[in-house]
Design goal:
Blueprint: H1 2-10, E1 26-27, E2 46-49, H2 54-70, E3 76-79, H3 82-87, E4 95-98, E5 101-105, H4 111-120
Amino acid sequence: MALFGKKKEEEKKAPACTCNSGCPTSEATEITSDCCPDAGNGICCIKVLGSGCASCHAQFENAKEAVKNMGLSVEVEYVTDLQKIMEYGVMSMPALVVNEKVAAMGKVLKPADVEKLLHKLGF
């Protein structure tokens, strides 16, 4: 019985990271606007990486809704090109990319969760 309890402890969510080293699900803790120097400390680009499946499409719609709710003037891009997705090092989809860095992957975030993540990242 103790073995099962230990297994549960080991299955806890991986710590937030931007390492893209194959974490099944992760969220970034810091994103900068290095990709767009003119953006200052703001968001210059948001992308949803996905295969075109229902979950990936839902993440795209949720990200668009979150951006709208926050009053941001950023267009959310939906990337389905596998070659481009591989360049980000994403191992599970859908993935949310903010300012060219992977902010979350492996789960569908609700609009409120996308907003919380963006706020947590300092936007």
